[in-house]
Amino acid sequence: MVHTHDVTVEGTRLTKRYVSWERDEHLREWTALRLAHRHEPDLVPEPLHADLTADPPTVTMSLLPGEPLSGGLSTAQSLALGVALTRLWRIPHGELAAAWPWSDDLGFARRLTEGPRPDDVVAAAAYDAAMSWWDGPDPDLLSRPPAATVIGHRDPHLPNYLWDGERVRIVDFEDAAVSDRAMELAILSEHLSLRTTDIEAFCARFDVDRTRLRAGRRLWAMFWLRLVLTEGRNAHRNPPGTVEAQATRLLELLRP
Question: Which CATH number covers residue 139?
Answer without folding.
Answer: 1.10.510
